[in-house]
Amino acid sequence: MWDYSDKVKEHFFQPRNAGPLEDANGIGDVGSISCGDALRLMLKVEPETDIILDAHFQTFGCGSAIASSSALTEMIKGKTLDEALKVSNQDIADYLDGLPPEKMHCSVMGREALQAAVANYRGEVWSDDHEEGALVCKCFAVDAVMIEDTIRANNLSSVQDVTNYTKAGGGCSSCHEGIEEILAKVLSERGESFNPGAQPKEEAKPAGMTNLQRIKKIEAVLESVRPQLKRDGGDIELLDVDGKTIYVSMTGACAGCQMEALTLQGIQQKLMEELKEFIKIVPTKAGALTRASCHP
User: Fold this and answer.
1) 203-220 burial by CB neighbour count: b if 16+ within 10 A, else e?
2) How does pLDDT run across 183-212, given as a tens digit for each residue?
3) Which domains does the chain have, with CATH numbers?
4) Which pLDDT value is given to residue 228?
5) Which of 85, 117, 216, 296 has the smallest C-beta neighbourhood within 10 Å, fewest atoms?
6) pLDDT confidence of residue 35
């Protein structure tokens, strides 16, 4: 598991201000359950002063998402709307005494929910819907503007940084080239050159495992999800491990299922948490790797 601070654990096990807010006059919805994280932030604002009298949240996501949402509500109560809008995603992470790099997207989601709720209160249009041409990461519906803003706000310099903070690139990885183009553009504005081999902003501690230990951990994660897959008439098979790419075969009812991509994203997340490294899981038909090796 990730190394969570005591404050993150506190806000996860005992979240503040969770649940619906009666008489809320500002509501912001961001994310989606299909992408793995969704947050509704509700504000009760005093019209005469624009002071946030109360703030509640409802979230679907991991422990960091719950802790970040809880922290945000505590941070903004008593502030005016303009003061609240100055709260950055890094402020949320700092309030929690830090978040694992791979979970920084949870604080970014909280920041977006706040912007949406304030816009809703003010009668302004705010939407995280994206035009098709604006999308960079289709797996998690992340557009170029959000990626650019997050790179600038958090001084990011690698594709893994962007994935940690926005989830973009954490699914099928087909958008990595697009993310690299945005990184090159923003870094050039800072007078820097983009280095595709740059290390992430805060890299997880090396696991120090042998290849055999690593493979056993991968097999253990797959074994842990297998009972649920079998209940639905499917299964998963480990085919090969090539560096940070893990090849698997979905079998039975899981092969070609409409939920296959979402299932693989969940398994990929479990593998990254267990291995404490950035990996990519690739679905491949059994025998395809062997046949490919026979035809250079």
Assistant:
1) ebeeeeeeeeebeebbee
2) 999 999 988 888 876 666 654 444 467 888
3) 6-121 (3.90.1010.10), 132-189 (1.10.10.1100), 211-293 (3.30.300.130)
4) 84
5) 296
6) 58
- Measure the CA–CA gap between 44 and 50, rounded to whole angstroms: 10
182: left (phi over 0), alpha (psi -120 to 50) or beta: alpha
Residue matched to tokens 């041409």: 133
Catalytic pick among 106, 139, 175, 254: 106
35, 62, 137, 172: which is the annotated catalytic residue?
A: 35
Is 175 a known active-site residue? no
pLDDT digits (tens, 9 = 90+) for 107-157: 888 988 999 999 999 998 765 544 444 678 877 778 888 888 889 988 998
Beta carbons of 249 and 237 less than 8 angstroms apart: yes
Distance from C-alpha of 37 to C-alpha of 31, rounded to nearest angstrom: 6
What six digits make up the tokens of 253? 């009812």
